[in-house]
Amino acid sequence: MADNIQHEDFGEKIGGAKKDLWKDRGLYVNDLDAMNEREAEKFVKKDNIWKKPDYQAMLDDGIPLGVVYFIKKARDGLNASPQYYRRDDTPEKRLARQKEYIQTVRELQGAVSEVRTVEDAMQVYDRFFVENGYLEQVQGWGSGIHYQATEKGRENPAITNKLSNTLMVRSAGYFERNFTQKAQKEQFGVSKDQKVPKGYAIHFNDGKNTYSKNNDWKPDTWYVTKGYSILQTNFETREAALKWVQELAKGRSKSGKTRFVPPQLIAVRRTGPDYRNGAEITGQHYLDTFGFRGGEFGNWMNQNDRQASLNMGFEALKDLAAALQVSDKDIAYQGTLAIAFGARGSGNAAAHYEPLRKVINLTKMHGAGSLAHEWWHGLDDYLGTKMGAKGMLSEQPRLYAPFQKLIEAMKYKPETPEQAVARTEAQTERTRKNAASWLDSAVLGSLKRHGNEEQMETYAVLREAFLSGEAGSVERISAFKKSVTGRVIPKSERERLEIFEHMLSGMQAQEAPQIGRVETDFYRNSVRMGKECEKDGGYWDSNVEMTARAFACYIKDKLPYQSDYLVGHADCAVTFVSDKDGKMEVLKAYPEGEERRAINAVFDEIVADLKREQILTHSDVTLPLPAQPLAENEQISIFTAERPSVMAQLAAAKPAEKTTPAQAVPKKSRVPEI
């Protein structure tokens, strides 16, 4: 690449990136003009409008504790996001409600932002509610002035009793009790390292009112309690007691979850065809070859990083087209997809797809290896729109039969004959046990009262015949009961027992157990991954994430060569967990073995069907760029010492984390290894 080439954002402006947002100043009503409907639903939140104040800075500036706490509670009194009435049933009405919410939040912010004393706090109620027209003061009959909601206040769902009760400061004494004292009790303004964990307390032992059975409780020491229980005594200092209780609470509340971040690849290798034909890739190549809508770079990515990302991403996308045997233009879903390199998230975050703006973001540190995973999310969203889903198609797979088949293949597989036998035997045993319980409750009690030993032996024989599913056994037992006790089995109980008789008869007649289905290891491990790792709440075992992880594995298996930037993280969803005996074992949240082959077969069907429906375009090969002659005195730079790679720069910044040296690229490869 010539030294004077500078890589900048290309194509259509994507919008919505961190560098373009209102995040520093907060959201205003006119900012909605630049948002689409989905973005407005996501971003119109209290925290995006009224940025969370720096309460500690207020305290440091000398504002009284109770006043700062009042400001916090006033802000907390607002709903976190707009509330809607049932009649807000069109995009236009919801937009109007969102604008109203932004305006309300801004008005409250203005009313409390200058509060510095108790007297100021007592004036906020009128400043916000009355001056903004939400309440009006009226003279009551035989009483003083009171407040009454106006139509504006009644129609605004953000104006709530909770907010009204918070802002109503009746007197200085009321303020002291409800704000200053509560702030002290909640340790508001106390730094995290000085906070006593919730539910615990630290007390001083003055030696006057303490009791010790062993007479070992020393005076002038500190002790820790939880509720009415004394947990530990005889701390020489409060700091020692605090440190002890913090460690105790940390251990007891620890969830055991770990944060899962795909490991950064030590080296990015590729052994496939030379699609670049020696050229350095530019943003224009992404527009011309794949039809991307646009592309962005993070402000903090230097030109070397940008070039590396462009080169590797281009080759990876070519590999993806080759694996699927689709047209290069299908990669951007016929011009609807955008791509970003390190522009739309933190460097420590994993790569991600943004459905609001239809853009794949590959972060500088962890983007390498996740391109196929994120591309599938984009396709999932694209197909969802085409099939009429409200969101990703994998979330509503019944709209498209091949997707429903994919979900079934990911989560379930046929039983083995041994599993079928074990399941059938267990079911039979459970049915026999339930049937015996119902029969005994209907017959046994009265037989014991009226029958003799011989009659009890007869019942045991009839009972076993019933449990073997012998036809007519219930009638014979009922007749036997009448002969002994004078009463038959009641009709309702007899009908229930006849159902059991029929079920047991069918079980006995079954020659071989029917093959059912069981959960796949992939599904079970994904569920457990959610319990072990920080992202839970259905993230790991969701259709959206399971299909993306499975697709990355599918592409890795389809390619006859290595393409790390595309699928280097396909098999990375791994963590260590302990079993019931405390032994460590490996947990893999991606498909393997026969399960993986079955899922891959369904992906084959999906791709073939999308081509038949002309949603994807079949192409046997993906062609390299035409060779470009070098300009005079120009040399093609392949990550020389003068231009270090992305990973080389990171390795220099974090030498302790990078101990494995990158291997040299074979001369025939022509592609960079970083």
Layout of helices and strands, plus pairs?
Elements: E1 10-11, H1 37-43, H2 46-49, H3 55-60, H4 65-76, H5 91-112, H6 118-130, E2 135-139, E3 145-149, H7 151-155, H8 161-167, H9 172-185, E4 200-205, E5 221-226, E6 229-235, H10 238-253, H11 283-290, E7 294-297, H12 303-324, E8 338-341, E9 352-354, E10 359-362, H13 371-387, H14 401-411, E11 412-414, H15 417-450, H16 453-467, H17 473-485, H18 491-509, E12 517-519, H19 521-532, H20 543-558, H21 564-567, E13 574-578, E14 584-588, H22 593-612, H23 646-653
Parallel strand pairs: 7-8, 8-10
Antiparallel strand pairs: 1-7, 2-3, 4-5, 5-6, 9-10, 11-12, 13-14
Helix pairs in contact: 4-9, 5-6, 13-20, 14-22, 15-16, 15-17, 15-18, 16-17, 17-18, 20-22
Q: Low-confidence runs (pLDDT<50, min 5 residues)?
A: 252-256, 633-674
The average pLDDT value, as a whole number, equals 83
User: Strand percentage, roughly?
Assistant: 5-15%
Overall radius of gyration: 35 Å
Strand arrangement, largest sheet?
Answer: 1-7-8-10-9
Tally of strands: 14
Total of DSSP H or I helical runs spanning 4+ residues: 23
Report the principal-axis shape: extended
Q: How far do the termini sit from each other? A: 17 Å
For the record, the count of structural domains works out to 4
